[in-house]
Design a protein that fits this description.
With 397 residues, the chain is an alpha+beta fold. The chain is 33% helix and 24% strand. The two termini are 35 Å apart.
Length: 397
């Protein structure tokens, strides 16, 4: 269910990564990460739909528009969201981009900066500037990829990085996220890098939206979204002279994105179980995704799983308020291998098997067949435990 995180992350051709500690986190932990392309590459982005946005969202949008979607580097800091910091926050982000651009000998607009962490605190800009030389040097280290993944962590308990080799090239993805996770976009940062062209800007943007719809749009931890959500796709610019160059398959990128989405759900704040919500028998994939999101977000469903209770009533009730038509009398519900509800009636004799599944498996599955068609979707979440409350009650104190 969960793909192992590698000890060393292989990068696609033409990319480097690294991470250093600049004092944003305590005890010298890594908190400043860098992705570098040897030459300018094409970039596509998706950003938070929250009306409150971090300063980096404003700067990224401006830089992508000015550069025509070309990027040399992405600078990422954790521990500080640089959000609700006014024009000063924007200027701080631009200054960091400009200083890094000088070191890479590229235009400022070809550098993006992304921030994550506590909202409302001024960005410690000088600490970042003082560590840029060390950060650039760190991208030549063999463990640069996993260091980058560690540097962008906030309340994550482990780094999230996946790399897949394919016949035509490699796809490597990084993500962070543990709390404030919910569409739209799902609160996280995600970076997908490939050495395969993904087509022109319009084609690649459509591909990124499709990838996101099947990955980060299907993960939820707590129903909250952040003002800093960002997804970036970096890929070689399409060569208009080569009409035979096939774009990178969306399936390869989606595979990596979904693996990262599952890790975000598994590492949800306070989580003890990764939960896959399987929706089957829907009239459309969209209907299945909507029902899955509602079930996955339900505090009653999530606390039942934390209590190892195969509470089918909570699952059916959540599906019933998703505003998607189905007949509960024709539905089926399962918890692991146990069908605990069928054709409008409970199956109490199956519940012990469902409880055993919840008790013994770290990655559990629950599901509902709506009996309306053949469409399906999986949504990923986690259980809701008392530790979630403690983590967020103490987040700033």
């Amino acid at each position: 269910m969960l793909e192992p995180i590698p000890e060393a992350v292989e990068m696609p051709r033409g990319f480097r990564a690294g991470g250093v500690g600049c004092g944003l986190k305590a005890d010298g932990e890594l908190d400043l990460g860098l992705l570098v392309a040897e030459e300018p590459v094409a970039a596509n982005a998706l950003f938070t739909q929250n009306r409150l946005v971090g300063a980096h969202v404003t700067v990224c949008r401006r830089h992508l528009a000015t550069s025509g979607g070309r990027v040399r580097a992405v600078l990422v800091n954790s521990k500080n969201a640089n959000c609700a910091t006014g024009e000063t926050g924007v200027q701080d982000a631009v200054a960091c981009c400009a200083a890094l651009a000088q070191r890479l000998d590229c235009p400022t607009e070809q550098v993006l900066m992304v921030s994550t962490g506590v909202i409302g605190a001024p960005l410690p800009r000088q600490r970042i500037l003082d560590h840029l030389d060390a950060l650039v040097a760190a991208t030549t280290e063999p463990n640069g990829g996993i260091d980058f993944a560690r540097a962008i962590m906030t309340t994550d308990t482990y780094p999230k990085a996946i790399s897949h080799a394919h016949d035509a090239g490699r796809v490597t993805g990084f993500a962070k996220g543990s709390g404030m996770i919910h569409p739209d976009l799902a609160t996280m940062l995600a970076f997908y890098l490939t050495d395969q062209p993904c087509g022109d800007q319009a084609t690649a943007q459509h591909a990124l939206t499709e990838i996101n719809d099947r990955s980060m749009q299907r993960v939820t931890v707590d129903g909250d979204t952040s003002p800093n959500d960002t997804v970036l796709l970096l890929h070689p610019a399409a060569d208009p002279a080569r009409s035979d160059a096939a774009p990178a398959p969306v399936a390869n990128l989606t595979e990596v994105a979904q693996a990262l989405a599952r890790h975000i759900a598994a590492d949800g704040e306070g989580a003890s179980r990764l939960v896959t919500v399987e929706v089957r028998g829907a009239a459309s994939e969209r209907d299945a995704m909507i029902v899955g999101r509602v079930i996955a977000t339900s505090p009653l469903v999530k606390t039942a799983i934390a209590g190892r209770d195969p509470n089918w009533g909570r699952i059916v009730s959540a599906a019933g308020r998703a505003d998607i038509a189905f007949d509960p009398g024709a539905a089926r519900v399962w918890v692991g291998p146990a069908e605990v509800f069928r054709h409008g009636r409970p199956a109490p004799e199956a519940e012990p098997r469902g409880a055993e599944h919840l008790q013994n498996e770290r990655a559990v599955r629950i599901g509902i067949d709506l009996g309306m068609g053949s469409a399906a979707a999986d949504v990923w979440t986690c259980d809701l435990t008392a530790d979630y409350i403690h983590i967020n009650a103490d987040y700033r104190t």
